[in-house]
Amino acid sequence: MARLGIIIAVSDNLPPFASLKACSKDGEAFEAVLRQTSRFDEILTLSTREKTASRAVKSAITDLVNRYKGQAVDEIVFYYSGHGEFVGNEFYHILSDYEASSRNQTGLTNSELDGLIRGLAPTLFVKIVDACYSGSNYIKSDDDLGEYLKSSQFGFKEVYFLYSSQRDEQSWTTGELSAFTKSLLIAIGRDVDGSIRYRDLISAASDFFEAQGGQTPHFVTQADFTAIFCESSPQMKALVENFVPAPAPTPELTPPANPSKRHLSKPLSLTERVKQVEKGYSTRQQAIEAFEILAKIFESGSLDQELIELYSITATRSDELPDGTETVGTWLEKLNSNEFFAVPTYRIEKYKKRVPKKRSRNSIFSSWQNSLGAALLPDEETEVIDATRQVVSGYRVTAAVPFHAVTIRLEPKSLALTPEECLVLIVASRSEIQLFWALRNFHYSDWETAVPNATVLQWSNAGVAIRDDAAIAQIGRRVLQEFTDATRRRIATRWPEPSAVKDEVEPGAAPNSKSLPDGG
What is the pTM of this model? Predict the structure, then answer.
């Protein structure tokens, strides 16, 4: 039975994602370990900028799957080191050409990866993901992250999923290697005899970060903990020491692309702990300054030479929230926390509800029927009634802030184009701000009036510490970049590159008009 390894290490990224030098070393180390085990029939390694581009990654994995389709596959180990991002209910592995405006094309989604691997029906599927989440997340709690990862296990017989950090944490580096990968290497290169199980790797990583702090790995298993990863040996120990020299001192953890540096020491008194945590909190004035940094970035936004010939750009602050903020309200509701200075708003919605038909109190089946509910009864035993329920309608801000929203607008200079807008909402707490942004397209209802298209706004979000001016500026530039990239793509999609051979149009004729045949 075949055993396969897939290693993706993405060090080079497009802005706004920072390049992560440790990732290439992570991939090199993990590939060396897999080869040293002599257990794998084929190991696919993608680590250069060209090989970690989206088209190259998806083609390479597809080719691997096609080569082994129809064969018995005992085990597949997937290893990834790079940026990661949650959007909606999907996790994206950030590839070297990733752009948020085309994230499904330029990222590798968890569901796409699972779909490809399911085609081989491996007995054991292992995922090791050492990902820096880059500040963006739509997973509201660690429980949600757990449920998300668990949903990925369906369709596989046995799984071990090892993720480097929880939903609200960065993954860290220790010099040349990412900390999570380093913790696994230390376990693999330990000076003991015998087998090293996947369960041993989980235990080692847990112990490593309990001692070091900095991040909390997340694990999902669907197995009996007997699966072997490798055998301990002097050769394996020597190989690991090429990447983690022994004795391995424990340097201070530093985040690869995270604005704030965390200093962790143990033991700490209560006073020391409070003072350490206090560094992450801000005053009202610091929050006002953070809002101003964002506003100035949006207001000073510039376009490249091509777009500036097509549009003018403006940014307008507003104390009013736009329509279509239900997603933000739902985000706050699911967060179920009083941390942010905003609360969901609700409205009453009418709907039709199917219920058991009312029967006489004397009916011997009455209580039994009602306990079943409508779902288990035949249609003739139920009826549809009018009912009401409370649903999220949006949100409201509970604190005085400089503004609630910014509208970035591209006003067309050409009659062939329509306006484009990016709506930005800002929700603050005492320690961070959450940005939500959505793109809105328009159409003309007459020659002068442009109205928004009747589509549900698709919101993205990202959180950043109020005290970190550089990170705030970076996320502001990211929003602008996504907006202009999406606009460029809309134009290119609507008017694709013309073919080399063009139909000639007579002067004065409409562009799509055709000549009529002569009557004779």
Answer: 0.50
